[in-house]
Amino acid sequence: MNHVRAISAKPTSDLLYLDELRVGQRFRSGTHTVTADEIQIFAYEFDPQPFHLNELAARDSVFGGLAASGWHTAALTMKLLVTGGPPIAGGMVGRGGELKWLRPTRPGDVLRVDSVVTAVTPSRSNPDRGTVRFEVQTLNDRDEVVQAATMNLVVPRRRGIASSRAKAGISIVRATIAFLAMLHAVSLTSCMVGPDYRSASIAVGGFHNASAVAARSTARPSLPLDRWWTGFGDPLLTKTIERALEQNLDLAAALARVDQARAAARAAGGALLPTADASAQSAKARLSLEGPIGSIGRHLPGFDRNQSLYDVGVGASWEIDLFGGLRRSAEAAGAEAEAAEAGGAGSRITVAADVADAYFLVRGFQARLAFAREQVATDERLLELVRLRFAHDVASDREVAQSEALLAQARGTVPLLVSGLEAELNRLDVLMGDQPGTHAAELAREAAIPAIPAIPHDDKPIDVLRRRPDVIAAERRLAASNARIGAALGEYYPKLSVAGLLGFESTDVDHLFRSATFQPQGIAGLRWRLFDFGKIDAEVRGARGANAEALAGFRQSILRAAEDVENAFLLLVQSEVRTRELMNEVAALERARDTAETAYRGGVISLTDVLDADRLLLGAQDELAKTRADTARAAVASFRALGGGWSGPASTVLNGGIHA
């Protein structure tokens, strides 16, 4: 239905609004008699370019800067349209048009303007305005069309409507937030695909060498396992271990791996929550006149090759975990983080035990060097005696050669022992995170190997295994592999995601933060792998295979832990037995050697008997020193096998998984 509205050529404040205009709506102006002055004023040089209503002309209600046609009729017609507000343009800026028909007019002609709305297009970037297209005709009193044109004008909306749309946008945002909160609650209460983890049930018996450890007689009581090294009563050993625990680089790397695993767990947990980002952009471009836009726009009035666009906004996206795939991934990452924590504890145990092991080897080499040097001094005195006897023709040249060979043999053991001592000192420096040779002087002073404290033996195997970090890590990896089965199964189900954007966009930076430039958006998406040539099936089978491997590894870790305890207990007990026997052997050989030397001096026995006694004594003394060091190292291995050297909450993760 066409609506005809009269437009007076006189000034008026009756403006048109986009919400009131409809396609087919007609407008008719009053009449105007052309004067000679007007013809003189609007007589321009001919220019075939389409006319353009600029902002200055709209404000002044005249087309003073019109570059359309030099024919005064065009200018006169536009003046009729603009005069009084202008009523059709509503005081807004024109967007160009096209002159279709033009004929001359003369003074005294009575003209009127008829126009019809052919298109109403709301602006996408600015909700406060839109573009209206008019077909305009100027007619004389004989109803002859003296001018026909197409005109595009920007027309405002009523403010009430724009503000209501802004309020509607806020309502949309609030509704979206409420909807997301509801979806989050639904995702938390929805089921999770995949098997729920249950600790593997493994039965373990008692340690059969624990009774032998219990029968040991020792002067030092047992101390808490987390600081077992203090039980040796050696301040330098304690200082060395504690320095290594603070400075060891392997331990620092293990702690860094723990931080990485914790960060991965936090990232996996963060996938369950929305992600929000802020963005801002300023774009300027000079369009090609031969491109898709420029080739069309170059023929439109007011086309500008230089374009600017400014936008700023805050967006959020969220994948709704309806079937628990993301929660299973987060569960797996959390278990891996706990495994890394157990691995860090295991590194602490290893560092403390390695430092103690190297320390006792140092003390062992020092004791063996002392025995070797003492033997060298004894063999030197014996050689002097033989040479003296040879000088008095009491000893033979063969006896001198035998004494020299015995001395050389004793001296030949020293370089090997020095090399071994130096290697262990360097090992200690590296364990303490320092350059080799840094602490050599501190440990150069010889000291006896301290007495071995009592070893805890009354712990049940289940308590030992719960304290072993390697067993804890294996169990946590088993839990992680179980959760990954659920994560793989989650790929069978659809993925639901939502996203939203609150932002502003404008071609004018001064108008960026206005209600007219506000543009909220909401997006909901669904993704479902319906056919993928068996990829999900393969992923699930791979996850189940990894779980079976982790279960075997967990069981193997328990067996190896029990093996470590049994071997360490047995080695400690047998090393102490061997130490006692070697002490008896050394005492007996010392008496035999002294007796042999006295008998040789008296000429009762030959030198060969003395040399044999020396050779046996040197070997027994060296073996005794070595065995004492090995006994202390066996005690260290026992503490290591029992999981000593750390304490933490992770030792409780195996509750219910292993039973006696």
State the end-to-end CA separation.
Answer: 93 Å
What is the correct CATH architecture of the largest domain? Up-down Bundle
Low-pLDDT parts are: 1-14, 37-97, 161-166, 650-656
Structure summary, number of beta strands: 13
What name does CATH use for the topology of the largest domain? Outer membrane efflux proteins (OEP)
Q: With helices defined by DSSP (H or I, 4 residues minimum), what is the helix count?
A: 15
Radius of gyration: 49 Å
Mean pLDDT: 76
Strand content: 15-25%
Biggest β-sheet, characterized? 7 strands, mixed
What is the number of domains? Answer: 2
Outline, from the CA principal axes?
A: elongated
SSE ordering? EEEHHHEEEEHEHHHEHEHHHHHEEHHE
Give me the secondary-structure topology.
Elements: E1 4-7, E2 26-29, E3 32-33, H1 36-41, H2 55-60, H3 72-82, E4 94-102, E5 110-122, E6 129-140, E7 145-156, H4 159-189, E8 202-203, H5 210-214, H6 235-247, H7 249-270, E9 275-286, H8 294-297, E10 306-320, H9 325-391, H10 397-431, H11 440-444, H12 461-467, H13 469-489, E11 495-506, E12 521-527, H14 535-601, H15 607-641, E13 658-659
Parallel strand pairs: 1-2, 8-13
Antiparallel strand pairs: 2-5, 3-5, 4-7, 5-6, 6-7, 9-10, 10-11, 11-12
Helix pairs in contact: 6-9, 7-9, 9-10, 9-13, 9-15, 10-15, 13-14, 14-15
